[in-house]
Amino acid sequence: MRRWLPITVVLAAAVAQALGMSQAAFYLLLVAVPIVAASALTVFGELLDGRFEAAESLQALLYGLALLLLVAGAAAGSTAFALSACLATFALQALLGVGSELKKPVLER
Question: For a tag site, which of 2, 13, 85, 109 has the least CB within 10 Å?
């Protein structure tokens, strides 16, 4: 659940931007900053605890990149930049997650 919350907030901001509600999209981006920061810290903590495999260790880096792009876009007032960069980062995370799931062996019954 915690991994879906940042994506949901950023997607809601993208929908608001697409509907022409740029002020609401900006505020949703501001709400997304602490959510993405908390997710990045959680994933980084799990990485330090050793709960991640090597391929999944990029998740912490990608969350950090998404946080950096969100803060930079919100500070510059460029909602479109922040949304596109953050959604691209989340898409890369999704591809990485799918790839790591496909590499796992299937348990025989």
Answer: 109
